[in-house]
Amino acid sequence: MTKNRFLSSTLMITLSALAVLNEWVMIAVVLALTIGGLYEFFYMIKKKGIPIYSYTGIFIGVLIPASIYSRFELTRNWELLFIVVAFLIILILQFARKDNSNAIVGIATTMFGVFYVSWLFSFLVKIRLLLPDPEGMKLLAFILLVTKCGDMGALLVGSRWGKHPLLPRISPNKSVEGAVGSFIFSVLSAVLAYQWLPASAHIPIWQVGMMGAFFGGIGQIGDLSESLIKRDCGVKDSGKFLPDAGGVLDAIDSLLFSAPAFYLYISSVL
After folding, report:
1. CA nearest to 238, candidates 41, 105, 21, 38
2. Residue closest to 62 by CA, chosen among 48, 82, 47, 76
3. CB 38 within 8 A of CB 227
4. 3-class state of residue 69 by DSSP
5. Is the CB of residue 147 less than 8 Å from the CB of residue 255?
6. Long-range contacts made by residues 49-54, C-beta under 8 angstroms, separation at least 24?
């Protein structure tokens, strides 16, 4: 591990711990990472020559976690209304453009970026607010630990024993051994953090292990999905906000899939 990667990892771990402990830090970190992730996503898309609405997309993307945190709810299904309004705004901006080439691709890609980065990442806020503290803190800590330990397991095992490529056409550095290591680390971390789950959920210990495997696996799919986007855009790292760590998107990609899945599961159990 390089010095820059160590510093970037230490920064993210510190911010994650503070976000778990304090709501204000949590929403500030989520907003900052949402802005950074959207900026990196739109930057990669621009390299493909697609006419997107990056600043409008970032503005809309910030409103999603902010509105969830403020418990804003204009209508019962306000999220659907929000998406429709956002689509109309981008469509109106397209009307003002002189060049209509790739208009559909530009509008669709902008909306996808908002959905992929902002909406999926905002489920961390929903998890934190699902139960009053300290239960809400523990739920957020649980999914962060399970997901990121899975990332760590994939890195440690893959770099040491990885010999069989997992999906070389998408991510040549990922191995089958690393994927197995990710599963093992996620299961172990879930079992160790068993007490962080609310007692009212009545989840047996064997099911917690299954949860670790499932959410760890979902996190790997999120990691591969971001690798697919980078490969399509022809870039190695999504950005340089976190030196030697691949960028903001590389840091949060696994959470983009595991957080929504965990929220839907734990809210249904509760």
Report:
1. 41
2. 82
3. no
4. helix
5. yes
6. 49/102, 50/102, 50/105, 50/106, 50/109, 51/97, 51/99, 51/101, 51/102, 51/103, 51/105, 51/106, 52/106, 52/109, 52/110, 52/113, 53/90, 53/93, 53/106, 53/107, 53/110, 54/110
Query: How many Cβ atoms sit within 10 Å of the Cβ of residue 168?
Result: 11
Whether 147 and 215 have beta carbons less than 8 Å apart is answered as yes
Per-residue pLDDT of the chain (270 residues; tens, 9 = 90+): 566 667 777 888 888 899 999 999 999 999 999 999 999 999 999 888 888 888 999 999 999 999 889 887 666 667 777 778 888 888 888 888 877 778 888 889 999 999 999 999 999 999 999 999 899 999 999 999 999 999 999 888 988 887 888 888 888 888 899 999 999 999 999 999 999 998 877 889 999 999 999 999 999 999 999 989 988 888 877 777 766 666 889 889 999 999 999 999 999 887
The pTM score is 0.91
Residue 23 phi/psi, 5-degree rounding, is -65, -40
Domain residue ranges of the chain, discontinuous segments joined by +: 3-269
- CA distances 91 to 77, 82, 110, Å, are 22, 14, 11
Nearest of 112, 145, 107 to residue 19 by alpha carbon: 145
How far is it, in rounded angstroms, from Cα 152 to Cα 80? 36
Is residue 105 packed enough to be buried (19+ CB in 10 Å), middle (13-18) or exposed (0-12)? middle
Tokens of 54: 């990056």
